UniProtKB/TrEMBL annotation:
GO terms for molecular function: iron-sulfur cluster binding; metal ion binding; oxidoreductase activity. This is Sporulation killing factor maturation protein SkfB. It comes from the Bacteria. Transmembrane segments: none annotated. InterPro entries: Aldolase_TIM (IPR013785), Radical_SAM_PqqE_MftC-like (IPR050377), rSAM (IPR007197), rSAM_sf (IPR058240). It holds the Pfam family Radical_SAM.
Amino acid sequence: MNNRNEYTLYSPRYSLSERAKQTSSILRASSVVAYHLLRGSKEKFAASVEITDKCNAGCSFCYVYPSEWDQNERLGGYLQLSPSEHKLKEKNVYETLRRLKSRGVVHVTLVGGETALAPKAIRLASKLFPVVWVVTNGVVKLPRLPNSVTVFVSIDGPPDYHNKSRDPKGFYKNYSYNNLQGMSANIVRNINESERGAYVHITLSKPVIKKFSDTVDWLVKDVRKLRGIIVSGTATKDFEDPCTFSIEDRKDLKKLIESAAEKYGWKLFPFNQPKVNERLFDEKYIISNSSSCSVAQRVESLNYDGSNVGKCVLRDDTLCETCVCNISGLAQAINLVDIRTISGVLRATYG
Ligand code: SF4
Ligand code: SF4
C-alpha cells in the first residue's frame, strides 16, 4: 500500500533500450488498431489461438474438452495423438501464427489447453507480433519470456474454491507455499518467482460472486508480483443454466468491483474501469448476438489446427445474452476512446 492507502502494483523493471523497443512495438500495434477503428474497416486485427491441445488441469466448466474427461486424458491432448502426430500439430500452430502475421494481425492472445505446455509457440509468437497476451492456469512455471509477452493467470475464486474447481481429483493437493495448499499454492509461487509478474483474471460463476472481495483480498495479500486484476463472469449456453448471471448478479458484481477499487485504488483493475463495467454489467448494454459484439468482429478465434472455433473463443453455443466476458466490455470502452481503459491496456502491453 502507498501512503494514500492504494495498493502498489508490481511493476517490472526495464532497461532504457528495452523500454524504447517495447514502446515502438506498442506504437506500431496501436496505429494499426486506430487505423481500422477510425476507418470502420471490417478487418480482424487481433486473434486468439489455441497453441496446444494438452492441459494439466481438470476444470469442470472447460469448453475445450468433453466434460467426462479427467486430467490424465486432458494431459494427453483431446485427440490422443501419437508423439509424431503431436509434432505435426505443433507445426500447424506455427503455420497458423505465421499466417496471422502475414495478414496484418498485431495482437494475439494465446490460449490452450495450457499454454505453459507449449513454450516454443509462445516464443515464436513473441517474435512475430508486437503484442502477445498469454492466458495460463499458472500451475507450472512459465519460461522466461520476451518483453512483448504479458501473462494472465486464470483464477475462479478464493484458494480452496479454486482448488476444487480446477483440480477436482487433487493432482496438486500435496503442493504447499506459505500458508497455501494445492493448485493455488503453485500458482502464487509461480507468479511470485516469475521474472515480470502477472495479471490475474478472476472469472466468477454465479455462486462465487459473494466471494469476490475475499478473492481480491487474498490476491493482494499473497501475490507479491501482482500487476492487476481483470474481472469477468461466466457465460452459459442457456438462461435455464443455474450459473447464468441475472440482472441483479450483474449489478452486485459491479458494486463489489467498485468497493474493491475504493479500497485498493482503480489501478488494481486496469480492464474494469467504470466505462468497461458499465458496458459489461448494465442491462441496457447486454449484447444480443455476435453481430453486435466487437470481439466477434475484431478477433479471429482459432484452434491449434488453425480452424475457426466459432464466433469467439467461447464457441458458437455460448449465448451472447448471458456473456459477462471482460473482453467484450473492454473492446467497447476502447471503441469509445475511454482514456482510462486505453491507458490500462497500454500498461498491460508492457509485458
Ligand atoms: S485450464 Fe483451461 S483448457 Fe485446461 S481444463 Fe481448465 S478451462 Fe480447460
Ligand atoms: S459470447 Fe460474449 S465475447 Fe463471444 S461473441 Fe457473444 S458477447 Fe461476444
